[in-house]
Amino acid sequence: MAACNACMQWQQALELFEKMRRSKLHPDLISFTAAISSAAVGGAWQQALSLLSEMRHLALKPNLLSYNSALSACEKGLQWQRSHAMLRQVQQERLRVDIISYNSAIAACEKCQQWQQALRLLQEICSLGHLQADVISYNAAISAHEKAHLWQGAVELLKAARRRGLRLDAVSHESALAALRPAEAEAPWEQSLALLEGILQQAIQLTSLGSAVVVQSCAAAEEWEKAFGLLGAMSLLQLKSDVNTHGMLLAECEQRGLSESEAKLLDL
């Protein structure tokens, strides 16, 4: 079954497990855990929970790996409430939950746009003595805030991670920048620009999407010179601007008679 999981052939792995049972063989803890892990690969949360329940019925006590696999299945299956309940069950059974357990639960909340639950779980990790939130924890929590258009919360989480000495990656910063989109947030353009400057100082490689948000923020605030300058910088960094942003700036150049800037934009 482990070989099937490694090849992402999770359905074949589950079929192999069923054949084992039909052959009157008695699956042990390792076999059940491997089967749950197979279900997790495919996001088959119902099968994962059914196998977990069957383990208990057979007096096989699930271990942390069993639960973490089931938590992963719930995350992929967008079952944040079940994921949360399972995390509590693991704690009740006196198993020492690890960061993988929490990250799966936070990711489930993020995927289901439950930013408050994601934040609570992150705060819970930080309050525990034996666990440290990692980049994955913060990425999921920041993304949850971005999906809820809560730019202040996303930026605060970035700052909190830095205070803890974590070096967040492009995923974290692009989620925070996405939360600052002018169409979705009444964020000051200075905030977008400050965030971009911080990213560049840390030599974090952004995609065109993240940089375009800052250009849009400046344009929405009618800070045209800064928007033009940023677009030029994006070109130097070999980042392409999106069509809407480019079109907006071209229209502004035409309206204001900025023929030189318009020519430069057409060359980008």
Could you explain how this protein is built, in words?
- It comes from Polarella glacialis (Dinoflagellate).
- Pfam families: PPR, PPR_3.
- Keywords: Repeat.
- This is Pentatricopeptide repeat-containing protein, chloroplastic.
- This protein has helices spanning 2-6, 10-22, 29-41, 45-57, 64-76, 80-92, 99-111, 115-127, 135-147, 151-163, 170-179, 189-201, 208-220, 224-236, 243-256, 259-267.
- It has 268 residues and is mostly helical.
- Among the domains are: 1-35, no CATH class; 170-268, no CATH class.
- α3 packs antiparallel against α4, α9 packs antiparallel against α10 and α12 (189-201) packs antiparallel against α13 (208-220).
Helices and strands, with pairings:
Layout: H1 2-6, H2 10-22, H3 29-41, H4 45-57, H5 64-76, H6 80-92, H7 99-111, H8 115-127, H9 135-147, H10 151-163, H11 170-179, H12 189-201, H13 208-220, H14 224-236, H15 243-256, H16 259-267
Helix pairs in contact: 2-3, 3-4, 3-5, 4-5, 5-6, 5-7, 6-7, 7-8, 7-9, 8-9, 9-10, 9-11, 10-11, 11-13, 12-13, 13-14, 15-16
Main sheet characteristics:
none
Measured by DSSP, the beta-strand proportion falls in: under 5%
Given the helix and strand composition, which structural class is it?
Answer: mainly alpha
Radius of gyration using CA atoms only = 24 Å
Number of beta strands? 0
**Average residue-wise pLDDT:** 82
Helix content: over 70%
Number of helices: 16
Distance between the termini: 52 Å
Q: List SSEs in N-to-C order.
A: HHHHHHHHHHHHHHHH
Name the overall outline. elongated
As residue ranges, the low-confidence spans are: 3-7
